[in-house]
Design a protein that fits this description.
The complex is a heterodimer of chains A (320) and B (990). Chain A is built from 14 helices and 11 strands. Chain A is of the alpha/beta class and 320 residues long. Chain A starts with a helix and ends in a 7-residue tail after the last helix. Chain B is 57% helix and 14% strand. Chain B contains 27 helices and 23 strands. In chain B, strands 1, 2, 3, 4, 5 and 6 form a 6-stranded antiparallel sheet that branches. In chain B, helix 1 packs antiparallel against helix 4, helix 3 runs parallel beside helix 5 and helix 18 runs antiparallel to helix 21. Chain B is rod-shaped. Classes of the chains: A alpha/beta (320), B alpha+beta (990). Chains A and B meet through helix 1, helix 4 and strand 7 of A and helix 1, helix 4, helix 6, helix 10 and helix 12 of B.
């Protein structure tokens, strides 16, 4: 009996102390910072945030909105965000020493990315000697080059001007004659009388939009990332089932008109699509193939110094 | 008994006191935990859940105060219940409102509640409360399982160590306050643990200190190295940038372009090439180089990869002026340009003659610095390392773990300085406070880092190393949370804790064993002592060792056995005594009965008028009443020389009496004789063992015998002899009883004998009177005496009686009368005894004037047998006295021995006196007759004389007459003078 009392006092001591002290599960994690810019493929982030799917999956996510697509790059590179939405090609020059991984394919651009031009340019062939505005070194440049190649226009016959897709509607006709952009900027350009002379429908699978996360974050918080992706898929499904309501949410969050929100021209990738695309393949249905296309492109354009290891870069392990 | 009661009372008081404090403690702990959660919640951002939680814990605190109040007011049970229920409410609330608390909260609540139920809840309520515990625990588990979405994460305060210290102190105080109550074992164990833990603790503390120093030194070195590495990387970046801009500025096309007249530049071939080249330069780092531009000497942007920049005037920019001024590539401080923190690398563009004609500007996103810092932090090999990059104004240019803090100041800047920096675009707009991260420790450390490159940042719990950059007036601070590099210490502590626990466990086990070996014997000894004190005297202490305790146990056992013996013998004695008492009681009862019997026998005996009847009654009744084999009575004969069987019970007794059995008084071995001799009862309880026992053929079954003297006063009459037909029939008790009986018998016997004597005396006195009466009228002496002796002999049934008379001269006793013919013959023989005859009984009686008795003449050497009286066995002689004159002696003789007693002497003396008086009377009568005759004779003589006429005749006549009268043969008359008295004849005759 005495022994029992003694032991019980010790037990109480231990439990009370642990209850007060060691109870917090390590240090509290800051929210996952995920960047995005205006691109319909990444709107599920907004849905997930607005509909509390992240909270539901027990992960705190802070969305970081970039008004220009390119702004996400240095921030991700300098670790200011844990992850961000990018086009697969843009990830390649960004990654150094395996400090980031592509863990999700959000969508494939299937006509959403366009090259807009003025009335004087009716086809890509008319671009010779003209200035084409693209995000320097970004997928926009890749798309433009694909267009040039497809139309047998040598690069030297055009001038590449670094203009982000956001600025294309504004700079068309003054600084540039054509430029790569997408919604909602493409609509803006159309309203100004410009038209598309080339779109991603002609490069199926090439413009694959992905979510890239910093390796450090992945290593430290794999469960949070899995939860994040689960919330992503749930948001995506919800949005597809509740288009109107979802669009309204997105419009409100991004200060657009609900009717301007559209997923036309892009194929959103659900979990099944992701699992499918994260397989080795011989066409752009495989993200490996697509990424390799970019690698080849960058090699050819002299951007790459070191070949990336795609097996390290692409990581499907967070999809499930 | 009283003491036990008191100690029970004390125990109850102790229990109540303990319950009181335990309840207070329970409520206090619950209060503290509630308070702790409440304060933690205070720091959380206010949400509904937080408000609810705060309300719950606040009410918890209130309830616990109420519980304590209840307890203090004497309603401890209400206090316990309140605390118990609140404990579960708080537990469920903690699990339901906070994430990740179930593993600490649930067991705590579980353990506390179990203890509470075990200690403080009355036994009959325990099942109910146990059920509550189960329900509460299941509820907490269920909540955790459901994982409700509203649950929030609450940061833990560092309350653990404080709690531990407080708890330890409470525990120690409790332990010491209770020390007196601990068992020997607990004390020993505590002692062992103390001895084991204190040195271990001290060693552990010393080692911890040493390790801490080592780890800190190592961490310092690592931090310094990392800081240096980061500085190198940054310097490298800056230097590369400078080199790049310097070499790019040497591209011929720029000289060519700038040399063109302004009007020719636009849309020229050269311009196209310039753009190509600018793009190429930009491609060097597509991510961080945001633009590359070419400025003329006026600072105007002529061509830029960012078209919106073209045409802008940058002449007032530092990077422009400095490049021109120093004629060297230049790197700007980090400035905010169009909302982006930016770093400008510029280099003068020269003609081949060396003349500066413009400036090449590469605009870097300052995030590149951050990227370098993040890389450095990640690769430095310093766990959880944090790298800060600060400029000369202590503006954070990069911070690896908190990018939001970039372009913030360490401390709140003075307004003037702030305004200046904001004007220089080195700080964003905003008040000084919002731009500060308020890290004074780091600011102070940086101010002194020239002397002290390593310093702690106390507020962050970090250790920091600072290093200056070469190519910028910037400082890199590499910091690491102290707990990170002290992690080995924690690990060490963990291991040490395990080791200490292990040692404590081992010591506890060892101590327990030793304590057991010490205390167990003592405990067992105590148990045994308690058993003994409880009355179990058979309890034995086990002697387990040869040490003091063993000795104690041994001694104890001896003591116990002595005690046991004492008590056992006491018991035996009490039993014996009881038995004795019972026996005595039985004996008393028996005695009473026997005394009753004795009384009855005595009564019956006393009613007997005859000695033989009386004795017969006694023996018969004795035999019958006492259920004896036989009883008889021996009486002394007259001479007490032998004991004659006087009465015997039953026929056998009668026959033996008839046989005239007797025992010589001096018989050495006779039980009866001995009893008679010693006047003490004698027992022979096994006659067969008496060597000299003479079996009586008439009493063949005699096995034991008891002889009781029949004593009254000093007189032993005889012996009551009883016999049993079993061995050991008689006890001392029997002796006493029979002695009483014998005494009664003796009394009866004495009475009877007295009565016989009285009867005899009366009868004899009657005889005396008769003799006196019948002889009193006899005036003739000889006839009188004859009559007396005859009648005396006849009346007293004597052998012989005769009377001697003292002669006139008084010197000879002459036989005057004798009874019967023998007497007459003897009288005729003229027997005489001289008065002075020494041997004569008769003479002696006459001389001494006292009656003399010889009861056995044969034994009297002086006795002179008389041939005429051959049967004489005893003789009595009494003097016959009148006045003081002895007339003679009455002598009587008997043919019986011991015929004469004192009474006989008295009676005979009386008779003799009567006879003497009668004799005197007879003599006086005869003398008077004689005198009368003489006087008449004298008268006659006188007359004759008177008739005589002569003197001679007168004389003649006188002489003749006188001679006749005096029967004198010759009478001489002589005349003389004088003699006139005539009283005494003889005298006269003289």
């Amino acid at each position: 009996m005495k022994t029992f009392r003694f032991l019980s006092i010790i037990l109480v001591a231990v439990f009370v102390i642990t209850a007060c002290g060691a109870s917090a599960p390590a240090a509290k994690n800051p929210p996952l910072k995920v960047g995005y810019s205006l691109w319909p493929g990444w709107y599920p982030l907004i849905i997930a945030h607005e509909k509390d799917f992240f909270a539901k999956h027990n992960v705190e996510v802070e969305l970081v909105f970039y008004s220009t697509y390119a702004a996400a790059l240095p921030d991700f590179g300098s670790g200011k965000v844990d992850g961000t939405g990018l086009v697969v090609g843009d990830v390649l020059p960004l990654i150094k020493d395996n400090n980031g991984k592509i863990i999700l394919v959000t969508d494939n651009s299937n006509g959403a990315d366009v090259i807009m031009a003025g009335p004087e340019v009716t086809s890509p062939a008319d671009l010779r000697g003209k200035r084409i505005g693209v995000g320097l070194g970004t997928f926009g440049e890749v798309l433009a080059r694909q267009m040039l190649t497809a139309n047998n226009i040598p690069l030297v016959d055009v001038s590449i001007v670094p203009v982000g897709p956001e600025d294309v509607p504004g700079q068309l006709g003054t600084d540039i004659d054509a430029g790569h952009t997408y919604e909602p900027f493409s609509s803006e350009a159309r309203q100004k009388g410009y038209h598309a002379i080339f779109s991603s429908t002609e490069t199926p699978g090439l413009i694959a939009d992905v979510l890239v996360f910093r390796t450090e974050t992945l290593n430290k918080r794999p469960e949070d990332v899995r939860a994040f992706i689960a919330a992503w898929f749930e948001a995506l499904e919800w949005w597809q089932n509740n288009q109107k309501e979802g669009n309204a949410l997105i419009a409100a969050a991004t200060d657009q008109n609900p009717e301007d929100i559209s997923t036309d021209g892009l194929k959103l990738f659900n979990q099944a699509d992701n699992l499918a695309t994260f397989q080795q393949g011989t066409d752009t249905r495989s993200i490996y193939f697509t990424t390799q296309e970019y690698v080849t492109f960058y090699q050819n354009t002299g951007v790459l110094t070191i070949l990336p290891d795609l097996n390290q870069l692409l990581d499907a392990s967070y999809l499930q | 008994m009283n003491e036990t009661k008191q100690s029970t009372q004390e125990q109850e008081n102790a229990i109540t006191r303990n319950a009181f404090w335990a309840t207070i403690a329970l409520a206090a702990i619950t209060f503290l935990v509630s308070g702790y959660f409440f304060t933690v919640l205070f720091r959380e951002s206010r949400t509904l859940v937080v408000y609810v939680a705060m309300a719950v814990f606040l009410s918890g605190m209130t309830m616990m105060v109420t519980s304590i109040m209840f307890t203090i007011r004497g309603r401890q049970e209400t206090g316990v219940k309140l605390a118990f229920y609140m404990l579960f409410v708080l537990g469920v609330a903690a699990v339901g409102l906070f994430q990740g608390r179930v593993f600490t909260v649930a067991p705590s609540v579980l353990v506390i509640s179990i203890i509470t139920v075990n200690w403080l809840i009355p036994r009959q309520l325990r099942p109910k409360y146990a059920a509550l515990i189960v329900v509460g625990t299941l509820l907490m588990g269920a909540i955790e399982w459901v994982d409700p979405p509203w649950r929030i994460e609450v940061a833990a305060a560092n309350a653990g160590p404080i709690g531990a210290v407080i708890f330890t102190i409470v525990l120690i105080v409790l332990a010491f306050s209770q020390y007196r109550n601990y068992s020997l074992r607990t004390k020993l164990l505590a002692g062992f643990l103390l001895v084991a833990i204190v040195p271990l603790g001290i060693l552990f503390f010393i080692q911890q200190r040493g390790s801490r120093q080592n780890l800190t030194e190592q961490a310092n070195i690592a931090l310094q190295g990392s800081a240096a590495q980061t500085v190198e990387a940054l310097d490298h970046f800056i230097l590369d940038g400078l080199n790049d801009v310097r070499t790019a500025a040497q591209l011929h096309i720029f000289e060519e372009y700038l040399s063109l007249p302004a009007s020719e530049r636009a849309n020229s071939e050269t311009e196209a090439v310039v753009y190509e080249d600018l793009l190429s330069i930009a491609r060097r780092d597509q991510i961080y180089i945001s633009s590359v531009g070419l400025l003329d000497l006026k600072g105007k942007n002529l061509a830029d990869t960012t078209t919106s920049e073209i045409g802008e005037d940058n002449s007032d920019q530092l990077y422009f002026k400095e490049a021109l001024k120093t004629n060297l590539p230049y790197v700007s401080p980090v400035v905010i340009d169009e909302g982006v923190s930016t770093l400008f690398f510029t280099a003068p563009v020269r003609t081949h003659q060396g003349k500066i004609i413009g400036v090449l500007r590469i605009r870097y996103n300052a995030a590149s610095l951050q990227a370098i810092l993040v890389d450095a932090a990640g690769t430095a090999g310093v766990r959880d390392g944090v790298v800060d990059l600060l400029d000369e104004n202590h503006i954070l240019l990069g911070i690896s773990d908190a990018p939001d803090e970039i372009l913030h100041t360490l401390t709140v800047l003075p307004a003037e300085k702030l305004a200046q920096l904001q004007a220089e675009n080195r700080l964003p707009e905003g008040p000084a406070e919002s731009l500060s991260i308020n890290n004074t420790d780091l600011a102070v450390g940086l101010n002194n880092f020239g002397q002290q490159p390593i310093f702690p940042i106390e507020s962050e719990g970090e250790q920091a190393a600072a290093a200056s950059m070469q190519h910028q007036p910037w400082v890199v601070v590499f910091a690491q949370p102290q707990q990170d590099y002290l992690a080995p210490l924690a690990e060490q502590t963990r291991i040490a804790t395990i080791v200490i626990l292990l040692i404590v466990g081992l010591v506890a086990v060892f101590g327990f064993v030793v304590a057991q070996s010490f205390s167990n014997p003592v405990v067992r000894l105590t148990d045994v002592a308690q058993q003994i004190s409880a009355g179990d005297l058979s309890a034995q202490a086990k002697v387990e060792s040869k040490d003091e305790i063993g000795t104690l146990a041994g001694t104890f056992n001896i003591m116990t056995s002595q005690l046991r013996e004492l008590i056992t013998t006491l018991e035996q004695r009490v039993a014996d005594r009881t038995k004795d008492l019972e026996a005595a009681q039985v004996q008393m009862a028996r005695r009473a009965v026997e005394l009753q019997i004795v009384a009855e026998i005595a009564t019956k005996a006393s009613q007997a008028t005859n000695e033989n009847d009386m004795l017969q009654t006694v023996v018969d009744l004795t035999k019958e009443s006492f259920d004896l084999y036989h009883a008889h009575i021996y009486l002394f004969d007259e001479t007490k020389s032998k004991l004659v069987l006087a009465a015997g019970a039953g026929e056998v007794g009668s026959r033996m009496v008839n046989e005239k059995r007797s025992i010589i008084t001096n018989h050495p071995r006779s039980l009866v004789a001995r009893a008679a001799r010693t006047a003490q009862g004698a027992i022979s309880n096994d006659v067969s063992k008496e060597p000299d026992f003479l079996p009586n053929p008439l009493l063949p079954d005699t096995r034991s015998e008891m002889a009781i003297p029949i004593v009254s006063g000093d007189t032993v009459f005889g012996v009551l002899d009883v016999q049993g037909n079993i061995v050991d029939r008689f006890t001392d008790e029997d002796v006493a009883i029979k002695t009483t009986l014998a005494q009664q018998v003796a009394a009866s016997l004495a009475n009877l004998r007295q009565y016989q004597i009285s009867q005899k005396m009366a009868r004899e006195l009657g005889v005396v009177a008769n003799v006196s009466t019948s002889t009193a009228t006899i005036t003739e002496a000889s006839r009188l005496l004859q009559e007396v002796v005859d009648k005396t002999k006849e009346a007293f049934s004597l052998y012989h009686a005769h009377i001697y008379l003292l002669n006139e001269t008084g010197d000879i006793l002459e036989l005057a009368a004798g009874a019967g013919n023998i007497g007459k013959q003897m009288v005729s023989e003229g027997r005489q005894i001289p008065l002075n005859s020494e041997k004569s009984l008769v003479a002696r009686a006459a001389r001494t004037r006292v009656g003399a008795v010889v009861n056995d003449v044969s034994a009297d050497p002086d006795f002179l047998p008389h041939p005429l009286l051959p049967q004489t066995k005893s003789e009595q002689a009494v003097p016959m006295i009148v006045g003081d004159k002895v007339l003679g002696v009455l002598d009587v003789q008997s043919e019986q021995l011991n015929r004469f007693t004192e009474i006989d002497v008295n009676i005979t003396t009386t008779l003799a006196s009567q006879v003497a008086v009668a004799l005197q009377n007879a003599r006086t009568f005869s003398q008077a007759q004689h005198q009368a005759q003489r006087e008449s004779m004298l008268n006659t003589i006188g007359q004759k004389i008177q008739s005589a006429t002569s003197v001679e005749a007168v004389l003649q006549i006188a002489a003749r007459e006188l001679g006749r009268a005096l029967s004198a043969p010759m009478t001489i008359a002589q005349l003389g003078k004088g003699a006139k008295e005539h009283d005494n004849g003889s005298g006269d005759a003289n």
